[in-house]
Amino acid sequence: MVFQIVKILKVLLLPMHNLFLDYTKTTSKLSDINWLLVLLVFLLGLSGVAMIFAATGGDWLGGAKQHFYRLIFATFFMLLIALIDLRFWYTISYPFYIVILMLLISVDIMGVTVNGSKRWIDLQIANYELARVQPSELMKLGIVLTLARFYHDLPRWRVSSVYGLLGAFVIIFVPMFLIMRQPDLGTALLVAATGASIVFLAGITWRLLASLSVFSFISITLFVVFGLKPYQRERILTFLDPSHDPSGASYHIIQSKIALGSGGFNGKGFMNGTQRQLEYVPENRTDFIFTVIGEEFGLVGSLLTIAIYIAIIGICLWLSAQCKKVYSKLLILGFIVTFSLYVFINLAMVMGLAPVVGVPLPLISYGGTVLLTVMTGFGLILSAYIHRETKLPSSKYKN
Questions:
Q1: Residue 33: Cβ-neighbour burial (10 angstroms; 0-12, 13-18, 19+)
Q2: DSSP letter at 359?
Q3: Residue 309 DSSP class
Q4: Could you please report the per-residue DSSP string of 227-240?
Q5: Spatial distance between the Cα atoms of 85 and 387, rounded to a whole number of angstroms
Q6: How much is the pTM?
Q7: Is the peptide bond before 135 cis (omega within 30 degrees of 0)?
Q8: Which of 271, 306, 307 is nearest to 292 (CA)?
Q9: Distance (Å, rounded) from C-alpha 377 to C-alpha 319?
Q10: Cβ-contact 229, 183 below 8 angstroms
Q11: Running DSSP on this structure, what letter comes out for residue 270?
């Protein structure tokens, strides 16, 4: 009788015992997390809180409070993602992509229009912007996860085949087309550039790369001539000649340059930016928040901010070099390419080196979906690194 009771208890408690072992094994991975990367990411997020506070004239409720709370939540969420087994992300890569595609399609049906663009879905949880989701930002995660799995499962000899190229083209083009309909050219170009970078990193032949480059150049030229909307074409003309409409289309770039230049070497000091106080620079808590850094902290503050971004990118490249599996390596490289494009395009835009597009400065600009997307990306980077020895399923076509 006693033996039977013990046997029953053993059967009942075994799953709990295994769960406990899995939990302790997962938490032991905390020591494998690159805490320098976490620290630098969190530091940039905190600087975003300070810059949003300054951009809104010291109004804590003008976005700084929301950004701070989102940063705390997103940091814990990033660490949670990092501890989850890489096989889970491998398994949900395709389903996640399909769900985001459905959300992009639903934007057309029930999307919220802001400043002439229909990019958000209102979750109807509360009458507040925290309840809005921007599916195009989430697709930046989906495109990397999906292409990383696609090339992990694909035999190396098929990467440059028609099947490999056609599959990657469909994965990239469908969401790009849906995002351009919103319209959101900046995000669409980011998705396309990220996808193209992963295709290149997957190892297509140089001959094919040259052919695709020529095709892309011709396609982009035709799109610029025939496909751009009038306001998008005006932005390109403004970039080529910023002085042609100083009170209209050129206003953003001219005022941005004035704000950056007025900061000098050391800046005017925190909360002392005159361009910011007089509200000469539009969108200075979102896309043009770098002007606040440049004006109030000068060249020193601007270079320090850029140096932190470079350090984050360098650490991630080192993490990718430690991974041997295609999925892990492409996962890290794909997200760091997306992050780098965010930074490069935003800084080039603010400095007048690129046309004005709706690309925020990651971790610093105000925006809930963007912040959560970026932090999720870093969580996946950490997960790929600390689970780099985990065995992933292989395609039956591998040889």
A1: middle
A2: -
A3: H
A4: IS-HHHHHHHHHHH
A5: 7
A6: 0.83
A7: no
A8: 271
A9: 14
A10: yes
A11: T
Place of tokens 């406990």: 20
Distance CA 237, CA 82 (A): 44
- Write down the domain spans for the chain: 47-386
Two tokens, residue 193: 């550039």
Q: What is the chain's pLDDT, residue by residue, as a tens digit (399 residues)?
A: 444 444 434 444 444 444 344 555 556 677 788 999 999 999 999 999 999 998 888 788 888 899 999 999 999 999 999 999 899 999 999 999 999 999 888 887 777 776 666 777 776 654 444 467 788 888 989 999 999 999 998 887 777 777 888 888 999 999 988 888 877 777 888 888 899 889 888 877 767 777 767 776 677 666 666 666 666 666 666 655 555 555 555 666 777 788 788 878 888 888 777 776 666 677 778 888 888 898 889 899 999 999 999 999 999 999 999 988 889 999 999 999 999 998 998 898 888 777 777 788 999 998 888 899 999 999 999 999 998 888 887 655 454
| H runs (alpha helix) in 181-285 | 185-201, 206-222, 230-240, 251-262, 274-277
